[in-house]
Amino acid sequence: MRLLLLTFLFFTNFCIAQDTTNQSKMKYYIEKVEKYLDREKALSSFYSISKEGIKMYASPKDKLNNKKEFLIRWNEIQIFNEFEFYECNRTRFDTYKLGVVSSGPGLCERYFKPKDTTKQLSDYKIAIDAGHTAGDITMGEIEKKDVKFKRDTTNGLNDSISFAEGMLTFATAKLLKEKLEAEGAQVFMTRTFNGGTAFGVTFDDWLKTSYKNAVDSLFKIGEINADKKEWFLNNKCTKRDKFRLIFKDIELQKRGEIINNYYPDFTIIIHYNVDETNTGWTKPSNKDFDMTFVGGAFMKNDLSTIDKRFEFLRLLISDDLEKSITLSSAVVTSFEKTLLVKTATINDAKYLRQSCFATNEKGVYCRNLQLTRFVHSALVYGETLYQDNINECKLLNKETDKTKNERVQQVAEAYYQGILNYISISSKTKSK
Ligand SMILES: [Zn+2]
């Protein structure tokens, strides 16, 4: 009798303890959604957070009918977060599509990520994505990622200005890679040469070898109809149209895929910014700011497809977002210190106010971009300085080979110092 009572008390206490743990988990994830993920407070009909765990729904109607797309119980979160770190025959997205976390055959046996010890730079795998593709001004014009100003002494320009953002990002990535490798890190670049794309060739070569197939595939999956297909394949479709309407999205998708296949510890996405209010970009701006983006801030129509709902859940239950915020904060702090360019506050750009969440860290904003959503690691999406700023454009205009440009070298150094700080912060928190 006494044993029975003790057993009863044990189970009651166990259940109460379990309940309290689940309650605190529920509170944590509800707050995380509100703080980082649901920008317009419009997505609660796609998920539920309850004593059972977290459920995802394909539509608000499905939630009303209690027809879940995926359920993860509280005790399954750790396993789900960790089993994509080794090559398995099933990814987390495959599991998501199954609807539940199953421990049946097919689940990779070696799914646990080794426990982190205090890592040196030499223990890290780092992916670097140099934003855009242009390796020259002609391609920069097709991408519409070029800065071109005529000589105009009244505006302080004694020379004309012409460069493309892709040239700057590639040179920065290359310099940064050299610095990291010198310290022993393994580094992967999505673009391996100036003017290259994530497909390993230039846009021009991609047009020759893969454009037609890409149009065919889009037709086959129903993304475009027969009329559209014909238009894309006839002569009226310009190179700019081919870039903008076909190439851009699938190439960004490819960047995400090759980064995820590399399983990096973290990812550095490199961009240079412009002043959004300098419409037309025919003359320089006086503004100059740094900022960084991480994932999150989904808008009301951003959960329309299963892959987007999966990424929403992944950002919610993994610590990718938290780590990204720490990394981005270290990097943006280093931008300001090294480049002497101020960190943007939420009032410095309209898109920061309208489509982002400001995190607690200065200059770090959640923004639902294709890569901040799709890259499965800690990441920083860096937007250093305004290329169209009067002083910056003159500095960036120097040297044809941008790896020799001093301002670009400073930007690479700023990323590098930020990364070192991040690693030192992470190893301190781990050794506590
Ligand atoms: Zn950019």
Tell me the major beta sheet.
7 strands, mixed
Bound chemical compounds: zinc ion
Distance between the termini: 46 Å
- How many beta-strand elements? 12
CATH topology type of the domain at 121-203 and 236-431? Aminopeptidase
* Shape by Cα distribution: globular
Mean pLDDT across all residues, rounded? 90
Q: What is the rounded Rg? A: 24 Å
| CATH architecture identity of the domain at 121-203 and 236-431 | 3-Layer(aba) Sandwich
Q: Give the low-confidence spans.
A: none
Strand order of the largest sheet: 7-4-8-12-9-11-10
Report the order of strands and helices: HEEHEHHEHEEHEHHHHEEHHHEEHEHH
CATH level-four homologous superfamily name of the domain at 121-203 and 236-431: Zn-dependent exopeptidases
What topology does this entry show?
Blueprint: H1 2-37, E1 47-50, E2 53-56, H2 60-64, E3 70-73, H3 77-82, H4 92-98, E4 125-130, H5 137-143, E5 146-149, E6 161-164, H6 165-182, E7 186-189, H7 203-209, H8 211-220, H9 226-233, H10 239-262, E8 266-273, E9 291-294, H11 306-317, H12 320-339, H13 350-355, E10 357-358, E11 364-366, H14 370-374, E12 378-386, H15 390-396, H16 406-431
Helix pairs in contact: 1-11, 6-16, 8-9, 12-16
Bound molecules: zinc ion (ZN).
